[in-house]
Every structure is written in structure tokens, then in C-alpha cells.
Specification:
Two copies of one chain form a homodimer. The first copy, chain A, starts with 11 loop residues before the first helix and ends with a helix. Chain A has helices at residues 12-21, 26-34, 40-46, 52-64, 86-104, 106-113, 120-139; strands at 68-73, 79-84. The first copy, chain A, is mainly alpha-helical. In chain A, 61% of the residues lie in helices and 9% in strands. The longest helix of chain A has 20 residues, at 120-139. Chains A and B meet through helix 1, helix 2, helix 5, helix 6 and helix 7 of A and helix 1, helix 2, helix 5, helix 6 and helix 7 of B. Chain B binds a DNA duplex through helix 4. Chains A, B: This is Helix-turn-helix transcriptional regulator. Chains A, B: Residues 12-110 form the HTH hxlR-type domain.
DNA sequence: CAGAATCCACCAGGATACTG
DNA sequence: CAGTATCCTGGTGGATTCTG
């Protein structure tokens, strides 16, 4: 009577994805790592807003959720590198879609969200930082 | 020297999108409305987890962010209908991507998130509800 | 450079009850 | 059916400090 026997849920997936991406910096972290910005110090430089502690916490969550892998080099000074897992990599297109939508509607969104002082500063500085990185990466 | 003069930020868009989608039920709400489940009572029936108050709050935010429009019919009993705006509609593909990714990796994600008792019940009941809706909508 | 331990403030979101 | 007012708490994420 209806096309699919198991009426694939409409919302479950949404909730699961939300769960994985739940955390102020998670999408950005995944995105950064996907760009080979894989060392904590690099990430901290990239995202002026995030704290060491929060960075660790959220990376840890991404790790336990199987989105990223952590490689620790027992050196001095210590060195740590994160990389996307298979499934983590499969999330990038989604994050990319989010990013592109936000970019495409930036002016409108900035206006509309203007009242909300939350992200204003943060996101702007991040923009600059990222722009910088882009240049560096393109040139280097 | 580098391909684009204005090195389109990588993260701004992400933050803006996060801002709009920030709220436990926002993606689901947009999704529901996109499916013509537009009346508050319908939505409440659909999402067993959400409260009247929270529903109102988040719908209000979506409204002030320009994602949805609210139409009030001054009747008795009162009748209210929400609809997506142009830009709100443009967000659906993104939400759809989130949803599909979650669905595609459901078994893995459920396992991995299992420790986290947060959503367990909620998302399951939502699945059922939604499945139901699908059937109803396909048949009706 | 990486990261663990505390401490804390804030707010999102849930429960409840009441009005039109 | 829709909406509002209170109240309350759990968790997120920020600041700080200290180790290897």
C-alpha cells in the first residue's frame, strides 16, 4: 500500500546527527581536521574562541563517537594529531552544506541575528583567521 | 596569487548556520513544517518530547530569524499555521542531508551513542511517530 | 605542547498551572 | 487549540591553575 515497508524514519537520523554534532565547536573541529589542521595547537590558533579544556572535551567526544582518531607521539615536546575516521569523513559533506548555506545567506543572517550578541565577535575573528589560513595554505 | 580575492571564510557560514539551527528541536521543526505539518497541535503530536512552552520559544526564534512565518486565524478555537519562508525552504536540503547521514549510519551511531542515555527513548518514539505520519500521509 | 583538575555562571529546556 | 508565567535543574562551556 505504501512504497517502503519500513517507513524510514524522518527524524531519527536528524537526532542522531544532532547528537554527534552537538557541541559548540564540533562542526568546526571536524571541518578543520578535514583540512589537515590536525594538531591541537593549530586548532587553538585557528579558533580563538575555544579553550584548551573545551577543545579537549569536544575532541574526546568526537573520538568516542568514532568521528576522529587521535594519534599521540610520545615525544618531547609532545605531539598529537587528529584525523577523520571513515564515517567522520562522510560527515564532511553535510558540514559543508551547512557552511555553504550560511555563507550564501551571510548578509541576511548577520542582520537577522544581529540582536543576538553571542557570536558576533567570535565568528568575525574566526572568519579572518580562516581566510588567513586559506591564503597560507594556498600559497604555501 | 590565490584563486578568490575574497577568501570566503570557511567557518563563518558554519557558525551562522549553527546559530539558526541552535535549539534542540529546530531542525525537526523546520523539517516538520516543510512536510506540511504546520499546526502547533500537529507538531506536538509528532514530537512527543517537546513541550508547549519550548515549542513556542523555538518557533518564535525561527520566526525572528526569518525561517518561518506564522499565520494566526482569529477564531474559536484558535488556529495557527506555520510555513517556511523562502530562505527557510532553502535550509531544508541541509537538514535533509543531516537526516540522511544519520539514517545511513543509524546502527553505528546508536551503538556508539548508547552510553549516552539522553536521546534514547525520545528519538525512538519519534521514529515511530514519524513512521506513522509517513504512512498516513502516503495513504491519505 | 598537551592535558587534567577545579570552580562557576549561565541558560536551554523541562514541569506545572493558568488564561483566552 | 493556542499562549503565557513561574520555577527549577542539568549540563555546557568558559576561566584558572597545575603537571609531564
Amino acid at each position: 500500500m505504501y512504497e517502503r515497508k519500513t517507513p524510514l524514519s524522518i527524524d531519527c537520523g536528524l537526532h542522531l546527527t544532532r547528537e554527534v554534532l552537538n557541541g559548540k565547536w564540533k562542526p568546526a573541529l571536524l571541518y578543520a581536521i578535514s583540512m589537515d589542521i590536525k594538531r591541537p595547537s593549530e586548532i587553538l590558533r585557528l579558533l580563538p574562541g575555544v579553550t584548551r579544556r573545551v577543545l579537549n572535551v569536544q575532541l574526546k567526544e568526537l573520538e568516542t563517537h568514532g568521528m576522529v582518531e587521535k594519534k599521540t607521539y610520545p615525544q618531547l615536546p609532545p605531539k598529537v594529531e587528529y584525523s577523520l575516521t571513515e564515517i567522520g569523513r562522510s560527515l564532511i559533506p553535510v558540514i559543508d552544506a551547512m557552511n555553504q548555506w550560511g555563507d550564501a545567506n551571510r548578509s541576511f543572517l548577520e542582520t537577522v541575528i544581529a540582536q543576538d550578541p553571542k557570536i558576533g565577535e567570535t565568528s568575525k575573528s574566526i572568519c579572518l583567521k580562516y581566510g588567513h589560513m586559506l591564503v597560507e595554505r594556498k600559497i604555501g
